[in-house]
Amino acid sequence: MKLSKVNEALSLAKPLEPCRLVVLISGNGTNLQTIIDACATQEMPAKVAAVISNEPAAYGLQRARDAGISTHVINHRDFDRRTDFDRRLKGLIDALEPDLVVLAGFMRILGFDLTEHFLGRMMNIHPSLLPDYRGLNTHARVLADGVNEHGASVHFVTPELDAGPIILQSRISVQADDTPSTLAERVHQCEYQIYPRAIAWFAMERLHLKASIAYLDGAPIKA
Ligand code: NHR
Ligand code: GAR
Question: pTM higher than 0.90 for the full model?
Answer without folding.
Answer: yes
